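Recap for those who missed Tuesday's class. We walked through two folding examples back to back. For each one, the amino acid string is listed first and its predicted structure tokens come directly after. Nothing is annotated here on purpose, so try labeling regions yourself before you check the end of the notes.
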Amino acid sequence: MNRDDFLFLLNSNQWSNAACLGYVIKACKALDYSEKEISELLETLNTMFSNFTIEQAEEEYRDY
């Protein structure tokens, strides 16, 4: 998935927190993260979902 694909999904009805978490889990597994590391990352990510808007997350991604 390239940046344009990500931004399209972000603005479509197909996007959800669960889908995002699924991608994160798949990426973590591909990088051989431990279950503890994945759990800690998911916990932090869920905090980010609660504290920042989609627009703020998109801006963070674009600035990266």
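Example two. Treat it independently of the first, because the proteins are unrelated.
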Amino acid sequence: MISTDAFKITLKDLRLLSRDRRALVILVAMPMVIIAIVGSSTGRLRANREQSRLGLTIEVADFDQSEIARRLAGFLASYEPIKVRRAVISNRTDALTLERLQTEPPAGEIDMRLVIRPGFESRIRELSTTLLTSPDESTRKEGLANVNLALISNETAADPMMEGLAKSLVKLSLQNAVLPIRAEKVPFFRGAARDSVVPVAWEQTAAAKPGPTDTGNRVYQFFIPSYTVLFVFFLVNIMGRSFLGERDMGTLRRLRIAPISPVAILVGKTLPFFILSLAQTIILMVSGRLLFGMSWGPQPWLLIPIMLCTSAAATALGLMFSTLAKTESQVSSFGNLILLSSAGISGCLVPRAWMPPMSQKISLFTPHAWALDAYSELLTKEMPRMATITQSCGMLLLFSTVFFVVGLYRFRADG
């Protein structure tokens, strides 16, 4: 019987795999370490904004306490991508506090800090009519410092896109804020200043906007599935070395001579790694939930078919590769080339949405991409579409079938 023969081979290989406990621990520990490192280094920047749909959180330290300064903060808070928070200033004449807020980068969820220095309104009133009526002209030479403003980024290595967005919105808010002063010098602007709708006090605006409900855990919704898929397919190398070792010891030849069908041999050789792959995935998903607060989506039971189909595709690819590789160097070189190139193009390392359209289309030729689509649909959507998950699982099973058939053909051809 095929099932009995395959079962015996599976038990034998499971006993062999269980002897190398250090390798099994590393197989699970390595993805967890990488997920923790990468997730913690990028989570603050991405996760909260995805959850709250806000672009930037800006802390405003108002040392001027003038009407124009309040208008500036109010107009800044009126922009949809901006959430404004007020810095606590016990004494606005304290030079040490001013110096600290201008030099120390903001921490936590604050992306940028806007410091409105003392004498801000006075400096605005000193500007010539030309500078007041020409956007960007007043800050062209010395930047925001020319009008007693300072913008400090949270990041040690500042993000140019973040800084550019913040500066542009501050300058636009400044143009609206100085309308009363502009109207005093240019009669043409009196109507605009009179009709200017001053936003609600920015302290109220900031309080009215809902804050993030997820403090960085959402980033793991991407990293844990991505690196799970990446390391599940790392079994290709392990399977290649296992087949190569049995071929060198003559075990594989004895199995060929025995009255066992080639299908039973390959099924028996593949099942242990399929079980190992499932165990690895389950441990990573459970650890992601317990350690990183990752959500399993609105329908957690859908993880089962996704994990089964992904593991089937990974082990079938490992089987096909094992029948093609002939030497240890081939397993190492070609195995790593296949794994890293497919992981890079599929979206395991960076989101596919960041890739060029052509790269996104090419990625669909890898099983990794279909597995990631299924995980993404379940873990990031409030109402996951069954059609998308079913299609992804179907494509994974198609990859599994093709890989197994090619592996079976190569195995028979070598016999």
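Answers for example two:
The chain has 19 helices and four strands.
The CA atoms of residues 63 and 230 lie 51 Å apart.
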